[in-house]
Amino acid sequence: MQLLKWLAIGLVVVAAVVAGGIIGIGYFLSPQDQLRHADLIVAISGGETTERTHEAVQLYREGYAPALLFSGAAADRNGPSNAAAMRSDALADGVPASAILIEEDSATTTQNAANAAPIIHSINAHSIILVTSPYHQRRADLSFHEMLGSSVMIINHSAADSVWRKSSWWRQPSTLALTFSELQKTLYVWSTKPSSQP
User: Fold this and answer.
1) Is 57:159 a contact under the CB 8 Å cutoff?
2) How far is CA 45 from CA 23, 38, 41, in A?
3) Least confident stretch, 16-20, 44-48, 166-170
4) pTM to 2 decimals?
């Protein structure tokens, strides 16, 4: 009887650890910082680019930064870049052209960070609000930290995603696959980043 009792307790503990780990993956991938004023809002293209753009524009309207930087190459090399499309959406939403910067060559998160860094440094920005999808936030943060160094503070703030939720990412096959793919990429970036970077 005593053995069964301890077995039951052990199973409950294991179940709690597994459940905590599953939920924890979503929170690990999606760090969120308290919003504060910054020198620049940086939105990178990718999954649900329109949502990322709208979130960045909303932050600009609310006065969190005086300028926007959109980063992303064209999905179709024969068409306009993602950054140019984001700029067009922002202009249509009333953001003045003088407040928008674009970077049109990046096809990966690492390139987003590498190509945005010189622009960020050139305008002497010491803080940015980094906008992407929630499941992509950790990897984007790691990449931007590596390229920007400690002189630029990164404030993480995700746009809403239509299906992915950090507290229930395992409920749909599509979000399950997306999460494990993103976790693998994030852990790779984490494990290969220079030890001197945050």
Assistant:
1) no
2) 26, 20, 13
3) 16-20
4) 0.86
Q: Please give the pLDDT value at position 133.
A: 97
At 153 the pLDDT is 98
Span 31-161+170-192: which CATH code? 3.40.50.620
Tokens of 169: 């990412």
| DSSP string of the chain, one letter each residue | -HHHHHHHHHHHHHHHHHHHHHHHHHHHH---------SEEEEE-STTHHHHHHHHHHHHHTTS-S-EEEE---SSTTS--HHHHHHHHHHHTT--GGGEEEE----SHHHHHHHHHHHHHHTT--EEEEE--GGGHHHHHHHHHHHHGGGSEEEE-PPP-SS--TTSGGGSHHHHHHHHHHHHHHHHHHHHS-TT--
Section 158-186 average pLDDT: 94
